[in-house]
Design brief:
Layout: H1 25-45, H2 51-74, H3 79-108, H4 120-129, H5 131-165, H6 167-180, H7 189-195, H8 199-224, H9 228-236, H10 241-252, H11 254-278, H12 284-293, H13 297-325
């Protein structure tokens, strides 16, 4: 009788096959290689372009290439940098190659009408030439956004908690919310310019209105939907009404509150740009409109790039705050 054939035990560890672009030397040298390709394209196409634009763009690419090579070496010693480059090098390389493709389309093939679509070196030169004005505009936009956003968040949290917790406040507050809330904040601009003594105060008020509605709605929804079991346990242990609000209902509503903060931040960005374009004579929105009136489209694209970095940085900071406050939700909810 033949002996039974031994069956190999299946491994309990999952096999995580990684894509080819995330293995081997590409993780370390993929980004410097992309920068080298962009530098070669720029060197081949920039013979007839202004010397100052070419020099500054070449310096920027050389700096990026140097940082890429330095990161490739440090990956052998720093595990955190190695993991970050493992995830980010495809995106970083694609961004560099995208700018190289734009240079081919604008400077090389001239497929896009000038001066509406300048080349990346011209955009960089515009940002360098106007760096002082761009910095002052960014500074004004930041403070205007911060004051309006904080005012709107504070008002939204107070009204949201009151509407969500107190039955009388809900009875009188919800109709007002349903009628006034859906009106876009930018629709209040004519009235704000008449009522407010200054354009800056009207802009702060408009941003606050834009933030107030989503924060109020989602805060009141989170408070009203607090699990009854949480409240019953707290009441059984002798909790007072103030304890139920601040230590039970508000912590339970934090995921909803952060949703309102994110929605309010997006609305605040939109209202900020519109308010600066219409009334306030400073800030990135004003700089964008001023550059367009003078047909300085290199400065227009430079302002758009600064806006992207500016808004993305603030959004990343809010994400970090959410991860810290809602650390107990890590792994249970994907945003």
């Amino acid at each position: 009788m033949a002996s039974p054939v031994p069956v190999a035990a299946a491994s309990s560890e999952p096999t995580t096959a990684q894509p080819a672009f995330r293995r081997g030397w590409l993780v370390k040298l993929g980004f410097p290689l992309a920068v080298a390709i962009a530098y070669g394209i720029h060197a081949a196409l920039s013979h007839e372009e202004p010397a100052l634009e070419t020099r500054h763009y070449s310096i920027m690419l050389a700096g990026l290439g140097g940082l890429g090579l330095m990161a490739a070496v440090l990956q052998f010693f720093l595990g955190g940098l190695r993991r970050w480059m493992h995830d980010m090098w495809p995106i970083l390389s694609a961004a560099v190659l995208l700018f190289a493709g734009l240079e081919v389309i604008t400077t090389g093939l001239r497929l896009l009408p000038m001066p509406y679509f300048p080349s990346p070196p011209k955009i960089l030169q515009s940002a360098i030439d106007d760096r002082v004005l761009i910095w002052e505009s960014t500074y004004h936009s930041l403070f205007l956004l911060a004051r309006g956003y904080l005012l709107g968040v504070l008002a939204g949290l107070v009204t949201g908690v009151c509407i969500g917790w107190f039955r009388t406040a809900r009875y009188w507050g919800m109709p007002v919310m349903k009628i006034v809330g859906p009106i876009p904040a930018t629709a209040w601009i004519p009235l704000a310019l008449i009522v407010s003594p200054s354009a800056t105060l009207s802009a702060i008020g408009l941003i606050a209105i834009a933030v107030w509605f989503p924060v109020t709605m989602l805060t009141s929804s989170g408070i009203a939907n607090t699990r009854a079991s949480y409240l019953d346990v707290a009441k059984t242990l002798g909790a007072k009404p103030s304890y139920l609000i601040f230590r039970v209902a508000i912590p339970a509503a934090m995921p909803n509150i952060f949703l309102g903060l994110f929605m309010g931040l997006g609305a605040a960005f939109l209202t900020l740009v519109v308010a600066e374009t219409v009334g306030v004579k400073s800030g990135l929105g004003w700089y964008l409109g001023w550059s367009r009136e003078w047909a300085e489209y290199g400065k227009v694209f430079a302002a758009l790039g600064i806006m992207a970095i500016f808004f993305s940085t603030i959004m990343t900071g809010l994400f970090a705050l959410r991860d810290r406050v809602l650390v107990w939700q890590k792994g249970t909810i994907k945003w």
